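Good morning,

Attaching, inline, the backbone tokens for the sequence recovery test we're adding to the shared suite. The designed sequence is right after.
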């Protein structure tokens, strides 16, 4: 799967570089998106754990390498997530944790930046770390931790422009986390001396995220300076044109 992700990214780069020969290149632009992301865990049917749905504020930055190719970085404000176990036939709280999972994607935009409707696709990597892990229920008293992981993701979305600078955005991502949870010091739980040395829980989570955002298009400082100089040249040319017309009228 990681080879497929790599091939996909290389293909996008090739398409984007090819488009620079026939499209108005706007490299240097930034797209800032801010909004709310909703996550649906989507565990396998064989999983012995259950994770609640949750949402959080997110912020992303996309740098337009060309008019069609961009690199995006996304971060979110983490919130606590509850884990439940369902192996006994009843659902009971097993643990809580707070994830921090920044991710980077390579995006391909199908239309130029001045299009009103601008769909895109992307592929990238997700780095997940977990904090404030705490065990409950039959694991209360044990040491509970979740492994870090580096996984791939896929993305699809679109921007719908309200004006030249502001757009509404819908973004959907398919993630995969290969992390697993480990519980140790189980003799401190209600299981006592009969407890096993440790228990490992495969997370096997392939969540889908849906983000609703407001997007802002910015020029880089270099491009903003170039635009100001160009506008200044246009104003100067218009001024010279008016002066020329005045001189011509005087000679009539």
């Amino acid at each position: 799967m990681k080879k497929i992700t790599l091939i996909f990214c290389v293909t996008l780069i090739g398409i984007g570089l090819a488009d620079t020969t026939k499209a108005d290149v706007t490299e240097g632009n930034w797209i800032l998106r801010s909004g709310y992301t909703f996550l649906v865990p989507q565990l396998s049917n064989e999983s012995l754990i259950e994770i609640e749905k949750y949402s959080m504020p997110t912020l992303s930055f996309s740098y337009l390498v060309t008019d069609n190719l961009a690199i995006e970085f996304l971060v979110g404000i983490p919130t606590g997530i509850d884990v439940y176990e369902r192996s006994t036939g009843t659902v009971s709280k097993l643990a809580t944790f707070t994830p921090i999972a920044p991710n980077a994607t390579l995006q391909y935009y199908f239309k130029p930046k001045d299009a009103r409707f601008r769909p895109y696709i992307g592929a990238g990597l997700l780095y997940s770390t977990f904090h404030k892990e705490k065990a409950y229920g039959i694991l209360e008293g044990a040491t509970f931790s979740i492994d870090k992981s580096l996984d791939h993701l896929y993305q699809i979305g679109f921007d719908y422009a309200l004006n030249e600078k502001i757009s509404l955005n819908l973004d959907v991502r398919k993630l995969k986390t290969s992390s697993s949870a480990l519980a140790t010091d189980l003799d401190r739980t209600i299981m006592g001396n009969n407890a096993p040395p440790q228990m490992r829980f495969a997370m096997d989570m392939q969540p889908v995220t849906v983000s609703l955002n407001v997007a802002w298009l910015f020029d880089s400082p270099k491009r903003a300076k170039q635009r100001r100089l160009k506008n200044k040249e246009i104003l100067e040319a218009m001024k010279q044109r008016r002066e020329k017309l005045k001189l011509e009228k005087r000679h009539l």
